[in-house]
Amino acid sequence: MMNGTLLVVLAHPDDESFPMGGTLAKYAMRGARVELVCATRGEAGIPGKSPVEAAQIRERELRAAANVLGLAGVRFLGYQDGQLATANPDYVLTQLVTLMWETRPDVVITFGPDGISGHPDHIAIHHFTTQAFDRAKLTGARLFYIAPSEATRQGCGVTPSSKIAGGPVAAIDVNEYLVTKVRAMQCHASQNPPFSGPPEEEAQRLACHEYFTLARPVASQKGLTDLFAFGAAVSLPQGG
User: Fold this and answer.
1) What are the E-state strand segments in 67-158?
2) Could you list the residue range(s) of the whole structural domain that residue 149 is in?
3) Could you give the CA distance from residue 75 to residue 71 in angstroms, rounded to a whole number?
4) Is residue 101 one of the residues assigned to a domain?
């Protein structure tokens, strides 16, 4: 078992499961405290549903997925889906810095500069989280960005961007947690999860590694073996 706190700051319900559910399940099941901050409730994410109805559905789905993944908590910042880039930056940063001081994470994860899919909310939360991390000045903490890979292509349905943040890359082996990842993905039924069959069968189709780029501290490192410890160098492949 391991100690430590992992804080994940993302934009929408399902952002936690589709590109990186295996990693969250792995660290939660190994004993880390994994907390999720979600900027919106995905109000614009269900065609034909009002923002209020969609938010209720997607919050329920997210809480169900969080339970499957073993997350310690889920918090919402309360912004509208699709409008995060227009939010008052001082207010968002105050919220995030306060949460970081409260949770004292050893590791923070958010989207990279590409937002994986290029969604404006993803890119906005990338900028807000990076600035908040710098302001919080958490001793010894690390900030990682979700790196484009086969896992993000499978989960998010987009070809990985060539806009990859510089820095050492951590390759997280999630092979033992792929069934859990599929079950979490399937909790987001309103989003038509891409792997909708029996979890044990669908898990065999998923990439067995998820990748993260170290953004802070900005330093020359030989590489990473996981999110909490430095070790042997890894490279970012095109496949899983």
Assistant:
1) 73-79, 107-111, 142-146
2) 5-216
3) 11
4) yes
Residue 146 near residue 202 (C-beta atoms within 8 A) = no
Q: Is residue 41 part of a domain?
A: yes
236: in domain: no
Domain count, the chain: 1
Lookup: tokens for 65: 């997925």
**Residue whose tokens read 């806009």:** 163
Residue 233 resides in a domain: no
CB-based burial of residue 158 (10 Å sphere; 0-12 exposed, 13-18 middle, 19+ buried)?
A: middle
Global pTM value: 0.92
DSSP result, 176-200: GGHHHHHHHHHH-GGG--S--S-HH
Query: Could you tell me how far CA 42 lies from the centroid of its own chain?
Result: 15
- Residues 35-60 have pLDDT tens digits of 999 999 999 999 999 999 999 999 99
Q: Domain containing 57 — which CATH number?
A: 3.40.50.10320
Count of all residues that appear for the chain in the document: 240
What phi, psi does 198 have (nearest 5°)?
A: -55, 130
Q: CA-CA distance, 191 to 183, in Å (whole number)?
A: 14
Per-residue model confidence (pLDDT) at position 218: 76
Q: What is the largest CA-CA distance in the chain?
A: 50
The whole-angstrom separation of Cα 136 and Cα 218 is: 16
